[in-house]
Amino acid sequence: MITYVVDTNVLLRYLLKDDECQYTIVEPYFTSKSHRLYLSIHTLCEVVWFMKHRLKTPRAIIIDTLLGLTSSNHVITEQQSFDRGMSFLKNGGDFADGVIADFACHLDNALLLTFDKNSSKISNKLNIPNQLL
């Protein structure tokens, strides 16, 4: 089975259904179990940013959307980074900050270095080593 690496614009067309022609093209990739889809953590960060900043989508809907996308057996992503991003999102932070903080958890003797007070607060809550500047 081929794995399709999904670009941000393809994922947004599927989620937003804002272009009927393009939605018709991409919809079978997301609904057919005969396709394996790879949603990179970078793509998911872009989608979350777009939903939050451009569309003003409420946090709860973003969370539900991401969980719905990744709950299918034919969709794969970087699960540890995704889970960390979701933890940040659920705790009032940014998905991308959680993804970045995830690296501090997997590198030897690493600290997340940030100016973001909220990111540092959430990192502390989740036992992620960090240093607030």
Number of helices: 7
What percent strand? 5-15%
Q: From the alpha-carbon coordinates, what is the Rg to the nearest angstrom? A: 16 Å
Q: Are there runs of 5+ residues with pLDDT below 50, and where?
A: none
Q: What is the global morphology?
A: globular
What string, H for helix and E for strand, traces the elements in order? Answer: EHHEHHEHHEHE
Overview of this protein structure:
- The chain is mainly alpha-helical.
- 60% of the residues lie in helices and 11% in strands.
- The protein has helices at 8-16, 20-31, 41-54, 59-70, 79-90, 95-106, 117-125; strands at 3-5, 36-38, 75-76, 112-114, 130-132.
- It has a three-stranded parallel sheet with strand order 1-2-3, with no helix packed on it. A two-stranded parallel sheet has the order 4-5.
- Helix 7 links the parallel strand 4 (112-114) and strand 5.
- The chain is globular.
- The mean pLDDT is 96.
